[in-house]
Amino acid sequence: MGDSQAHRGVGVLVVGDRVAMVARPDELERARPDARRIDCNRGLLTPGLVDSHTHAVFGRPRYEEQEMRAAGVGYMEIAGHGGGIHASVRDVRQRAMDDLANLAEGRLRRLASYGTTTVEVKSGYGLTLDDELKLLQVIAHVAQRVPLRVIPTWLGAHEIPLEWREQGDAGASYVKMLVNDMLPTITAQHLASFADVFCEPGVFTTEQARTILSASKRAGLGLKLHADELEPSGGAELAAEMGAASADHLAAVSEEGIAALAASQTVATLLPGTMLFLGRPRQAPARALIEAGAAVALATDFNPGTSPTVNFPLILTLGVSQLHMSAAEAIVAATVNGAAALGLADQVGQIAPGFSADLALFDCEDIRELPYWYGDRRCRGTWVRGETCHPTSAPIS
Ligand SMILES: [Zn+2]
């Protein structure tokens, strides 16, 4: 899919953990007559989907907030009643690691059952040194238990914790603690590949985000940013300027932000499931981003408050039906560009010689069917590094 072309009547030869050859079955047969064969039965084989933005480690679901929103209660009002992220923080703090790991394992396996083989997972429901460490240790632990490729991100700057807000802190002292105490502990234990900040008016300002990201970069972490979700605040520009791997959300990105992303290597990661679930009419300007030359990725934003879905192909549906992307653009956004958003563009996201054998098989004849059968689970199996990730129902001989 690197060239976004679908090839008919070809197969993939996997040797060890990598793709060795993509060719007609008779050519593969000649190259390796002894190879074990999996008949894809004319299905659609894609690179395993790369979900580059999730908050998959959490405790209880927050279904009551969906009804509250439906009844007209606003996001800030829900947060004011101790709901929103604060509710997940309270819940996660009192749960044991084992409990969180078991919940996360089941959820990641469900993600795999829809075609995802690489998943980024953020901390951010702890917001104390010990609780953020606990979440990152859960992510590391679960990564050993599931076959998916798991990329950990430290999101200590997800929200200003209530106990700090109650002391009148507008973030300054909490940011100091993040940079001086939490970040060095997390990097010393090698628990995160990326640092992320929720940059939005009322949460962390652009300047606070700059402080946290600068320190994280010096500490050797890759950078991500929750940027311009509800209001344009210069988040996209900051992400581009700092060389972040991705700027995520972007439903309210400005013209300047679009231009900055287009001129940078920073991937614009769009999360249309979130806007759908929140009932918001405004989606990120995918077409303007693509036409300006930005690399656009799609992701689920799987989380208990604003996007409780493990169904990545459904996000492709929204990419086409709401973001006006072509099916090929949406699939590239969920593979090649998702990989770039995780710094893995030379390893996963393409079916090409030398790439990791991370594959997904769908019950479709045409790539346009993947976003078309919306909400359906067409995935028949996934593989990571050539090994079964989600069990395939395809016959093996
Ligand atoms: Zn998020």
Describe the protein's architecture and organization.
This protein is α/β, with parallel strands linked by helices and 397 residues long. 39% of the residues lie in helices and 18% in strands. It contains 17 helices and 14 strands. The chain has helices at residues 25-31, 63-70, 75-80, 85-93, 97-113, 129-145, 162-165, 172-188, 206-218, 235-241, 255-262, 272-278, 286-292, 312-321, 327-333, 336-340, 369-372; strands at residues 11-15, 18-23, 44-47, 49-51, 116-122, 149-157, 194-199, 222-227, 246-249, 267-270, 296-298, 359-362, 379-384, 387-390. The chain has an 8-stranded parallel sheet. A 4-stranded antiparallel sheet has the order 3-12-13-14. Strands 1-2 form a two-stranded antiparallel sheet. A hairpin with a 2-residue loop joins β13 and β14 (387-390). α6 runs parallel beside α8, α8 (172-188) packs parallel to α9 (206-218) and α11 packs across α13 (286-292). The two termini are 26 Å apart. The model has no long low-confidence stretch (mean pLDDT 95).
In brief, what are we looking at here?
The protein has 397 residues and is an alpha/beta fold. It has helices at residues 25-31, 63-70, 75-80, 85-93, 97-113, 129-145, 162-165, 172-188, 206-218, 235-241, 255-262, 272-278, 286-292, 312-321, 327-333, 336-340, 369-372, and strands at residues 11-15, 18-23, 44-47, 49-51, 116-122, 149-157, 194-199, 222-227, 246-249, 267-270, 296-298, 359-362, 379-384, 387-390. Strands 4-5-6-7-8-9-10-11 form an 8-stranded parallel β-sheet.
